[in-house]
Design brief:
mainly alpha, Rna Polymerase Sigma Factor, Chain: A, Arc Repressor Mutant, subunit A, 2 domains, about 75% helix, about 0% strand, elongated, RNA polymerase sigma factor, RNA_pol_sigma70_r4_t2, transcription
Length: about 180
């Protein structure tokens, strides 16, 4: 069955349909929100709140035309609500140290590279960061991103192009800083 059909069942009071949606989308939604927030506990809270909103909408009879972009829109807006809170930036401090042994050296190298990329992405504004995460980490199409963020497809294309250019500049700057520090 399609996701929209499960939402239709939920609107008819069949709660087991919601369980299937949670099972299907918990992991990808968690990954998306975690990349935006970089905080595991906060991510879990946001994901739960997103699913709660989906459940409540289903109980009200809301059945989106396309479930996946609608779900990401709810998650993105829930993150934006968090960022609007005055204390949220102060609470946004996390421990990013990675420790390991010689046995897992290649894994740590990969994790450090990935961490470097995520940290670089996090330097972008939320508008650029969100479209890049949805496109490259969640593999959404431009039309799905447009629906999820309530913007035009041209805006999606522009933000992706500009975001990639800004990211490239950040990565080049970071690489130069690293070379100067080692040289």
């Amino acid at each position: 069955m399609q996701d929209e059909e499960y939402m239709q069942q939920l609107s008819l009071g069949i709660d087991s349909a919601f369980d299937i949606l949670v099972f299907r989308y918990h992991k990808p939604l968690f990954g998306y929100v975690y990349r935006l927030l970089n905080d595991e506990k906060l991510t879990e809270d946001i994901v739960q709140e997103t699913f709660l909103k989906i459940y409540q909408q289903g109980q009200k009879g809301v059945v989106p035309d396309q479930f996946k972009p609608w779900m990401y829109k709810i998650a993105t807006n829930t993150c934006k609500d968090y960022w609007r809170k005055p204390t949220s930036r102060l609470e946004y401090v996390t421990d990013k140290n990675i420790e390991g042994t010689g046995q897992v050296h290649p894994i740590i190298d990969h994790q450090l590279e990935r961490q470097w990329m995520v940290e670089s992405l996090n330097q972008l504004s939320i508008d650029y960061r969100t479209v890049l995460f949805l496109r490259f980490y969640q593999d959404l199409k431009y039309s799905e991103i447009a629906l999820a963020l309530d913007i035009s497809i041209n805006t999606v294309k522009t933000r992706i192009a500009r975001g990639l250019k800004l990211l490239e500049n950040i990565l080049i700057t970071d690489e130069r800083k690293g070379a100067e520090g080692n040289g």
